[in-house]
Amino acid sequence: MWHLLPRQVESLWTLFTAPVVWALHFLLCYVGAAIFCEKPHLLGSDFGNLRIAIGLLTVLALSTIVLAAVLAWRQWGFGTGDPPHDDPTRKDRLLFQGYATLLLSGLSFIAVIFTAMPTVFIMECIR
Fold this sequence. Notes:
- This protein is mostly helical.
- It is 71% helix and 0% strand.
- It has helices spanning 13-38, 40-43, 47-75, 90-116, 118-121.
- The longest helix has 29 residues, at 47-75.
């Protein structure tokens, strides 16, 4: 599987991938729940359907974040370079970007789990 991934991703956009995925997940989960609770017949009357949809969306978001983390880990050199990466060289800039992306991916992974957590405990909308 490792050979299928690109060798290095040298774009600043990779730094923002995981937080953007979390933000979209947050938006879709909470807007979807708000629409369902306000107009239940629009999306179906069973709260379980909403929970399944949020679960699938969560799995998709987590897998995308894991992919971003793997790419970041590769860019960081599989953890061989110890921080701080503060020399004004191209290599240190890439190592820093990989390390920062890996940390943001971890934070975003946890944030996605916490965003989806209410669906485990909430059984229906209060009307």
